[in-house]
Amino acid sequence: MTRQPPVSDPVDLVFPGTEDIDASAVFSGPGYKAPEIKTESTAVTSLVLSLLFFIPALPLLGVVFGVVGLQRCANRRRNGQGLAIAGIVIGSVVTAIQLMVLYLYFSFMGAV
What we know:
membrane; DUF4190 domain-containing protein; single chain; 59% helix; 112 residues
């Protein structure tokens, strides 16, 4: 008698990048509906912190969150690359402007 290899249950098969997708939400209803790709929260945080330019040091945190968000978007196959890049660019420009204003303030305060 020959032994048959065990047949794996199709429910146990998981394709890369689909670990957190609810199968009942995808396959319910008529037709197939593509799973929604989530937006990376660190990319959104990066843009928000970069836009809060009137609070010192927050745009610099926006740059840090933007770099982390960009890496996570690539690794987790999520949306938000554009938000992360915008957070990095805006945060860098605003941080440079804040540093120039700080330098000018202290240079004029020392001259007076």
